[in-house]
Automatic annotation (TrEMBL):
A family per Pfam: PapZ_C
UniProt keyword Ion transport present: no
Domain RapZ C-terminal: 164-283
Binding site for GTP: 59-62
Originating organism: Candidatus Avoscillospira stercorigallinarum
Protein name, per record: RNase adapter RapZ
Length: 286
């Protein structure tokens, strides 16, 4: 079981980190009392695989000391349960700016302390857990997408490729380029089955059209170059923190060439380990 504990400064990005972990398939529990962590871990282990990835968020909302948390971590060690502590922090100025923008109250200002003092006090209180962390994420100037990429690198492991889904869509340029497209490939230079009487009223979903399109060397050369580009760029999109990539393939009407090529590209991307879907936007248009 993969067990992750998220802690850190209020306003630094713990909730965002937790949401990214949830996107990666983690079962996330926010603000669980430290005393309950060992029992919760035992419950997860007892489910025999139902909770394979678990993340807990703990911070000063639960206690002004972390003695209970350290006892819980010792219990996890005794259970031989491996866990990872992610500590999320940011510069004081950045945290103050975020609180002013959201107009939320810092948990340590309830006693009348000003915001700057509250942030510095919390930083001191959290120093013991920071020293024990496996990884420290400073979000001061870290874009949200980059933060997601950092989290993927830290905890995704063999799930890394599955952290981003890829949607391949075929379309016809005469009906416009899909607005959601990230990458657009124009295959109108390929021989057009529309001008073959036996193929005109068929689509790229049918073997005859697919075989016609891929019988030409330029199609094979094009596919090799596009596949090489995708092999290079897809991992970089994952590292950048992208959750969904839309690859659009267009021909004139969206029925023949783009459909055939989109299916082949989707199959290639799927074989690379990415969650892949394929759709044909204009295949039914007249």
């Amino acid at each position: 079981m993969q067990f992750v504990i998220v802690s850190g400064l209020s306003g630094a990005g713990k909730s965002t980190t937790a949401s990214f972990l949830e996107d990666l398939g983690f079962y996330v529990v926010d603000n669980m009392p430290a005393d309950l962590i060992p029992q919760f871990a035992q419950l997860c282990l007892a489910t025999k695989g139902r909770y394979e990835r678990v993340a807990l968020v703990t911070d000063v909302r639960g206690s002004l000391t972390f003695e209970g948390l350290f006892k819980a971590l010792d219990s996890l060690d005794q259970m031989r349960l491996k866990f990872t502590i992610l500590f999320v922090e940011a510069d004081t100025g950045a945290i103050i700016k975020r609180y002013k923008e959201t107009r939320r109250k810092h948990p340590l200002t309830r006693d009348g302390s000003d915001l700057t003092s509250a942030v510095e006090r919390e930083r001191q209180l959290l120093e013991p857990i920071r020293n024990r962390a496996n990884a420290i994420l400073n979000t001061t100037s870290l874009p949200t997408a980059k933060l997601r990429g950092e989290i993927i690198n830290l905890v995704a492991g063999d799930m890394k490729d599955r952290a981003m889904s890829v949607s391949v869509v075929s379309f016809g340029f005469k009906f416009g380029v899909p607005l959601e497209a990230d990458l657009v490939f124009d295959v109108r230079f390929l021989p057009n089955p529309y001008y073959i009487a036996d193929l005109r009223f068929k689509t790229g979903l049918e073997a005859e059209v697919r075989d016609f399109v891929f019988s030409y060397q330029q199609t094979k050369d094009f596919m090799a170059k596009v596949e090489d580009l995708l092999a290079f760029s897809l991992p970089l999109y994952v590292d950048e923190g992208k959750t969904n990539l839309v690859v659009a393939v267009g021909c004139t009407g969206g029925k023949h060439r783009s459909v055939s090529v989109a299916r082949e590209l989707a199959n290639y991307i799927s074989q690379k380990g990415y969650v892949t879907t394929v759709s044909h936007r204009d295949i039914a248009r007249r």
